[in-house]
């Protein structure tokens, strides 16, 4: 939700950050606690729910069989869709969330467009005819600041949780290939999500910068840099957002910061994912 | 997706034949051979630039720019009064619309804005707004329309350049003129101002691991970066290098634009 702050409140927050003090007692490069749950949506092939402080994001992956792109007959497709639920605030009612939805889904597809992130060859079935389409749908339930990072965490976790049914390809009598599902429901393939990037947004407030800004801190932000960081520190996409401009030296500093924090966050997420895999599903009543 | 039935649409299932040709011969060539690029340019050489102000008479300001074969036209309307009361603000507002003409790319574009165009409109806004004195036109709005007529690479950076020239032509007060440039990295070389067959696309099959493209919009007098955007897998070291190259290129462009603006002012004075 958009927070409205007075000028003096903004100055108070900014001065604090310049001295390395944040309103909730975190250090400048600390993330809020991440609550993660896998397989929360039984009808999806993979799903996850992430709570990053007050932000709440639900992601689901559905697999469908469709046609591959003519230019890439051996590969499957991934399609991102982001939905800002009007439950999260009245400003997202109707078409209100459109801009944010497009911004996030375009950045997701940019960050995942690199070949090294996901092996799309696994999703190919019959070259030129059929392949898996992975629909990755993200639902934003609550915006408590830093929604982009939360979305990327949810997407990576949902992909980690995704089980794609194994199919057999048979030749029919007419000489055409056909796709057939195996009888065993526990027969599935899992994609490697090791190289999937996660986003790190770094906000510039005054002379200081912080990661994982809360809604209040976002309201004071003049400029921010979002980068998609892989676990080995490579950056697969980045962008400057908001209406302010930045000095070259501070951009370099922020990139370095992003890289370090991103690698750390990747590690944290991977350990959390293996924990969550075996944890009991609590669902929405938690 | 609602479609406009009054226009003649192409069949929904049609595809561009060029996508079916697997190895487009130009794409197979290395980006650099004998220190020359595919169009005989050097690595850091820009294409020829042609810019003209005041090309649309009914707009407050307009500009046309050619960078090699990339052609962009841009018009600025306003400042106009904001009608709706809930859009009232003490700072002026900018509204950007970025569009590829349907015939501008090898593949036909739809006449309705797709997600990429909507996102680029937002980026255009972010690139321009640090440079505009918004406090000079409270309660009013300036509208900027950028249209790519021909896309031969680096179209978005050309659009930023064109939009800032159009803002100058519209006599909107600016802190500085945002100038943008692109740099492509292919794993070995950094090349400035890539044309269409040099641009990064994730569809190419023979890519090395580290590969990508960086766009920077720079305010040369204030020495500030107003837009930054990169795609493709890059390490932070290469990112730094390409940013520096982009900034160098924008400074060259800036001198060209200054000349162009000077000429326009001279013609008004005479």
Automatic annotation (TrEMBL), chain A:
Q: Name one GO cellular component term.
A: cytoplasmic exosome (RNase complex)
The primary site where this protein sits is: cytoplasm
Q: Where in the cell is it found?
A: Cytoplasm; Nucleus, Nucleolus
Domain (Exoribonuclease phosphorolytic): give its ranges. 31-165, 197-255
Record-linked Gene3D superfamilies: GHMP Kinase, N-terminal domain
Q: Which GO terms describe its biological process?
A: exonucleolytic trimming to generate mature 3'-end of 5.8S rRNA from tricistronic rRNA transcript (SSU-rRNA, 5.8S rRNA, LSU-rRNA); nuclear mRNA surveillance; nuclear polyadenylation-dependent rRNA catabolic process; rRNA catabolic process; TRAMP-dependent tRNA surveillance pathway; U1 snRNA 3'-end processing; U4 snRNA 3'-end processing; U5 snRNA 3'-end processing
Q: Which family does it belong to?
A: Belongs to the RNase PH family.
User: Would you tell me the protein name for this molecule?
Assistant: Ribosomal RNA-processing protein 42
Organism annotation:
Dimorphilus gyrociliatus
Automatic annotation (TrEMBL), chain B:
Ribosomal protein among the record's keywords? no
Biological process (GO) annotations held by this record are: nuclear mRNA surveillance; poly(A)-dependent snoRNA 3'-end processing; rRNA catabolic process; rRNA processing; U4 snRNA 3'-end processing
| Cellular component annotations (GO), alphabetically ordered | cytoplasmic exosome (RNase complex); nuclear exosome (RNase complex); nucleolus
Q: CDD domains, from UniProt?
A: RNase_PH_MTR3
Alphabetized Pfam families for the sequence:
RNase_PH
UniProt domain Exoribonuclease phosphorolytic: residue ranges: 45-173
Q: Name one GO molecular function term.
A: RNA binding
State the superkingdom: Eukaryota
Query: Is Cytoplasm one of the keywords UniProt gives this record?
Result: yes
UniProt keyword list: Cytoplasm, Exosome, Nucleus, RNA-binding, rRNA processing
Cellular localization per UniProt:
Cytoplasm; Nucleus, Nucleolus
Q: Which InterPro entries match?
A: ExoRNase_PH_dom1, ExoRNase_PH_dom2_sf, PNPase/RNase_PH_dom_sf, Ribosomal_Su5_D2-typ_SF, RNase_PH
Family of this protein = Belongs to the RNase PH family.
Free-text function comment from the UniProt entry: Non-catalytic component of the RNA exosome complex which has 3'->5' exoribonuclease activity and participates in a multitude of cellular RNA processing and degradation events.
Can you state the subunit structure given in the record? Component of the RNA exosome complex.
The name this protein carries in UniProt is Exosome complex component MTR3
Source organism of the structure: Dimorphilus gyrociliatus
């Amino acid at each position: 939700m958009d927070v409205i702050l007075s000028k003096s409140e903004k100055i108070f927050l900014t001065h604090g950050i310049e001295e390395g003090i944040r309103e909730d007692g975190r250090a400048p490069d600390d993330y809020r606690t991440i609550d993660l749950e896998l397989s929360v949506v039984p009808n999806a092939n993979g799903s996850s729910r992430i709570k990053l402080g007050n932000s709440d994001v639900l992601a689901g992956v559905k697999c469908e069989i469709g046609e591959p792109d003519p230019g890439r007959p051996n590969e499957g497709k991934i399609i991102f869709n982001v939905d800002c639920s009007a439950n999260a605030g009245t400003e997202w009612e109707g078409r209100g969330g459109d801009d944010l939805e497009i911004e996030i889904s375009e950045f997701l597809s940019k960050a995942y467009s690199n070949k090294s992130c996901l092996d799309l060859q696994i999703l190919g079935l019959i070259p030129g005819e059929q392949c898996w389409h992975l629909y990755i749908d993200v639902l934003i339930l609550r915006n408590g600041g830093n929604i982009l990072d939360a979305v990327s965490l949810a997407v990576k976790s949902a992909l980690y949780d995704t089980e794609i049914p194994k199919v057999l390809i048979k030749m029919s009598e007419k000489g055409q290939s056909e796709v057939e599902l195996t009888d065993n429901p526990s027969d599935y393939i899992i994609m490697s999500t090791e190289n999937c990037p996660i986003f790190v947004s770094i906000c510039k407030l005054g002379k200081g910068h912080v990661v994982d800004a809360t809604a209040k801190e976002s309201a004071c932000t003049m400029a921010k840099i979002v980068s998609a960081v892989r676990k080995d520190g490579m950056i697969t996409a980045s962008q400057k957002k908001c209406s302010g401009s930045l000095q070259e030296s501070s951009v370099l500093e922020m990139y370095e910061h992003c890289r370090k924090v991103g690698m750390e966050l990747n590690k944290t997420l991977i350990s959390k994912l293996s924990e969550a895999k075996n944890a009991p599903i609590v669902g929405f009543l938690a | 997706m609602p479609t406009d039935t009054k226009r003649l649409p192409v069949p929904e299932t049609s595809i561009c034949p060029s996508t079916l040709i697997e190895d487009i011969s130009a794409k197979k060539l290395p980006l650099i051979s004998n220190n020359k690029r595919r169009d005989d340019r050097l690595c850091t050489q820009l294409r020829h630039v042609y810019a003209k102000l005041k090309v649309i008479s009914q707009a407050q300001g307009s500009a046309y720019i050619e960078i090699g074969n990339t052609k962009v036209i841009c018009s600025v309307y306003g400042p106009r009064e904001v009608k709706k009361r809930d859009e009232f603000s003490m700072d002026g507002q900018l509204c950007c619309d970025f569009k590829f003409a349907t015939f501008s790319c090898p593949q036909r574009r739809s006449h309705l804005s797709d997600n990429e165009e909507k996102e680029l409109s937002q980026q255009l806004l972010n690139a321009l707004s640090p440079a505009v004195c918004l406090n000079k036109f409270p309660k009013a709005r300036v509208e900027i329309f950028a249209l790519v007529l021909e896309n031969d690479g680096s179209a978005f950076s050309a659009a930023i350049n064109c939009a800032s020239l159009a803002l100058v032509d519209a006599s909107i007060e600016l802190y500085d003129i945002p100038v943008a440039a692109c740099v492509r990295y292919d794993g070995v070389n950094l090349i400035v101002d890539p044309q269409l067959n040099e641009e990064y696309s994730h569809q190419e099959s023979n890519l090395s691991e580290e590969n990508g493209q960086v766009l920077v919009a720079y305010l040369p007098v204030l020495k500030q970066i107003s837009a930054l955007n990169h795609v493709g897998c890059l390490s932070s070291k290469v990112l730094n290098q390409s940013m520096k190259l982009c900034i160098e290129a924008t400074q060259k462009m800036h001198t060209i634009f200054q000349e162009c603006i000077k000429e326009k002012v001279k013609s008004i004075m005479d």
